[in-house]
């Protein structure tokens, strides 16, 4: 059977039902592990076992920390490097009091108006189920891969992936496995998300910024508030915050952003010339890019103050005040260089900085590699009108954990997302169109057929 025939014969109705059923299992992850209902995670894993009998028969399965499955579909004695497909089946909770905003209950898995509704339908059970459907279908058609295919599905991606992806990645490094490429969630095909873009763009994440939390603490003598000094510990924290906000980290054009802007240039209504000559013009237009939070995040390390505290009573000077910031570190900077910057813009002020969770920016995957080209041609096979654009992810995925085992890490799901779809992720009325879901399965069938 030719590749395209294999692809046509998969059973979309049953795949749609499987995604709907998977959404009904409330695999919610919470930062506090104690709050997680692991019986439901067991139920989800059992659901995979029962739904995909061919995978159960043909693939090896290991469980990392009890809940992160690694499936290995082995090739027959082939020495090609394996491929790794990622996804995660944990989902974020439904925000308090937001349930009423949902047109269909968030865990109903309702199929209505050519969509599958519910939490996880776009992030990221769609990916897990699409991968499983594709592999199950290929096995049942007697397809034999020419390299080993690995699949890893995280159960704690939404809370950092420390027990799932991080541990699976450690195991792969220990076994000296080097992957030809890794495909994870991240980019998609955008239509109306970038003003002025005249064609759909398939944006493939080739790098991600590092996310780090830090705590800044100021200590003081305290005392009665009737005789205050010029500034209290809280006042000092306020000055530190203000100094940092008024003196952002320097702007820089990194390879993923430069390539993104240049690739998009011919398709931009007005900014064609500027984007095409971005290397030369960057010093002039960087302040313009800094005006939008999105483009600003693409060109510099950002520092967002997210929590603060200090003081116990209205009439007592605080002996301690603190603030927490989330840093998103750009390639070329590091957590330490960002801390140096914070110190530099606060001369003469006494404070301590503590790293709470430190993750450096990822390496950048090549856009000249064979897997990147294959990815582009498969995407264009399904969406001929889409232009393939590399980009820098400002959010994080599980894929960064696998940097030690692979140079070609690409973050992309074969779905068209509008602004509205994108806004539903981690929010209300998350849903995926059946055509999008069908295209995801086609994408994986084509990708695996070429391997
Ligand atoms: Zn996700």
TrEMBL record:
Keywords: Hydrolase, Metal-binding, Protease, Zinc
Highest taxon above the source species: Bacteria
InterPro entries linked: ArgE/DapE_CS, Bact_exopeptidase_dim_dom, Pept_M20A, Peptidase_M20, Peptidase_M20_dimer
Segments forming domain Peptidase M20 dimerisation: 206-344
UniProt entry tagged with the keyword Protease: yes
PROSITE patterns the record matches: ARGE_DAPE_CPG2_1
Similarity comment: Belongs to the peptidase M20A family.
Protein's name according to its UniProt entry: M20/M25/M40 family metallo-hydrolase
Top-level taxonomy: Bacteria, Bacillati, Bacillota, Clostridia, Lutisporales
